[in-house]
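Intended use. Records like the one below are meant for learning the mapping from a protein sequence to its folded structure. Do not use them to infer anything beyond what is encoded.
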Amino acid sequence: MIFAIYYHGNEAKIEGLLMASQVFLSIALPFAIIPLVMFTSNKKLMGEFANHTWVKYAAWFATIVLVTLNIYLILQTVGLLK
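Structure written out for the chain above:
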């Protein structure tokens, strides 16, 4: 709401700000999801609550897909891909 007031309702500027926030979140995502999968799969750390083998592989697969898509989005946003 603050930025809508600050930009006087200029939709183009607000859209640009929204896009920048999404790119930032894409950059930050791997720093959250990779340790999450690592820690929850660690039997020494989690004990009986550690991920089962199939969950661990599914989590790593999803992590790889998400990180790959986010790298593609970042490269596309900065203009290195069309």
